[in-house]
Batch of 2 targets.
Target 1
Amino acid sequence: MACEGAPEVRIGRKPIQSYVLAILMNLVDQNAKRVVVKARGRNINKAVDAVEIVRNRFAKGSNIKVESCEIGSHEIEVTDPNSGQTRTRRVSSIEICISKE
Amino acid sequence: MACEGAPEVRIGRKPIQSYVLAILMNLVDQNAKRVVVKARGRNINKAVDAVEIVRNRFAKGSNIKVESCEIGSHEIEVTDPNSGQTRTRRVSSIEICISKE
């Protein structure tokens, strides 16, 4: 587990700006030393984008860096709406830990 | 740069099975110790998926693991097809290094 105990930003369906803001709020406003950005499936690239936007656009002067980046996968249960059958599906996930010096 | 000198698998528009096969070919057939999987933009989640499929489905017994995972971004030049103007765009990227013991 990357970045144990650090505040989490979970990437979902909202526009990317929401997550960029959430990361910045944690780092700047809440003065957190580290933030962990988590995403699953199709949101993985949005997570990478959000971290890169924070790093390139908003954090040029300060020392924000990617401390670690871990990938993994989870089994989730999906119910087929037509047949009503449940089956397990594998979903990839990413956890990016960013830190501020 | 992750996995200096290791054979590369670049994730593009092909179906994910092609890339899973390419990774396996390098590790098993070519007997490479390490492989680096690279992707940009929307293909980032496909890269994570491909690595996770290799790790979970085909490599249960053997010791294939993610050695490192790096994210970054590149500036690329895009030409607007209507106006003909070029502008720079930021594209996120990922490099996942997998190794076999």
Note: The radius of gyration of chain A is 16 Å.
Target 2
Amino acid sequence: MLSNTRTVRIEWGDCDPAGIIFYPRYFEIFDASTAALFEHALGITKFQMFKTLEFTGWPLVHTKARFLKPTRFGDDVTVETTVKFGRTSFDIEHRLGLKGEICAECSEKRVWTVRDAGGRLKSHPVPEAVLAKFRG
Amino acid sequence: MLSNTRTVRIEWGDCDPAGIIFYPRYFEIFDASTAALFEHALGITKFQMFKTLEFTGWPLVHTKARFLKPTRFGDDVTVETTVKFGRTSFDIEHRLGLKGEICAECSEKRVWTVRDAGGRLKSHPVPEAVLAKFRG
Amino acid sequence: MLSNTRTVRIEWGDCDPAGIIFYPRYFEIFDASTAALFEHALGITKFQMFKTLEFTGWPLVHTKARFLKPTRFGDDVTVETTVKFGRTSFDIEHRLGLKGEICAECSEKRVWTVRDAGGRLKSHPVPEAVLAKFRG
Amino acid sequence: MLSNTRTVRIEWGDCDPAGIIFYPRYFEIFDASTAALFEHALGITKFQMFKTLEFTGWPLVHTKARFLKPTRFGDDVTVETTVKFGRTSFDIEHRLGLKGEICAECSEKRVWTVRDAGGRLKSHPVPEAVLAKFRG
């Protein structure tokens, strides 16, 4: 299980005076889609991940996105999210589509973090228990 | 059919450094819930309402909200939305709950608008065709 | 010094397909205006308040707002914010105007909180040091 | 005049439960910074550009960003924005810094658009009057 697909309704308040989605909203959707992928694989929410795993977040190192076709309020878009794990980081790809056509694509590199003795975030190998769930 | 209930996931990005929802996000949820109520009653999205009805939006005149219990990322809250129609305006109530407990309540007064000959928004009686759908 | 006025630019991304501000953005502006009032009185940011005061936030109990005239991207609105202190809570009023005309009004009731021994937020009298700064 | 620098306050509501800025907010800041660059060069707001220029928006084709250091509520960050013009498109670079250190970098490719006879957006050469203002 290395991918997850979910449906998201584009809302009136996500759209700008051109009548189409204001693109920062796509990044909100992508961030939630990354969390949804982990929730689907692990069976627990990100909130529960903080409580039960060696985990203090997955800060974004870089992201890039291409915008191919606009979407509008009332559109129910699909977001297909896939992951490839490195040792302490992972790469995410999102493909956002409407009626079979790709509207936007995004990639992210994120780092798995834990807190060091001084309370600071530091990178840390993705726990084997997490990787095992993704291997399914 | 004068009410609608939907479920909304509170996301990481909806929450603030206190770890709970940043309250302006509730108003985004409430605005979308008003649209969802009409979509449920009319069978068309707000986008399609603009195309097919005498309708150019429902500007908010006033709103008020009470916040009783915080919600957090990972919470799947329910929003129950009801409407009472006046002649050119309508009153909306939202009750947002989690696991059977009310977390927030909101009321709104909105005006049904159309465009006058000069292109300006003006209030207009809620169309009979809309009212009929809500009477079900 | 019980009031503060600041200027806020309404941005493209704050506006919806009607070309006017999407009203939840007003609540973001009001929340930041409450923080700006305290920063103006105390001479420290909200971030610094957490570090140096008996303070763990000012959760909102209720709010209400009236919307009189729309604002648009490119508008530089003024927000005048005033406060009245109770013992453990305070009332805020915001008046948002453009070119001398009131566009929106908002009131808020918030509670001053600290953390109890168990780590939970509880209401607490507004510190005398804070009140003294507002008396100026 | 091919660059513009502005200061932006990071607000409480821009930050997530980790206490740092939620990165989609950076894209809101970058989008407004692109508009600010044009406003600085042309002497008119984006709203006025729609009224007075052959212009119906600058949709984003792609963007990428790197996040080097987090920022927090209360931080006053600087955003330096530069542009390079092509014929019908332009490339934007944003450098967001705090106290002399770069915290985030972003690049954008956007297309200058006008409406064709059928009302659809199409790419169009950046007007000479605009280019002349940037040559200053």
Note: DSSP finds three helices and seven strands in chain D.
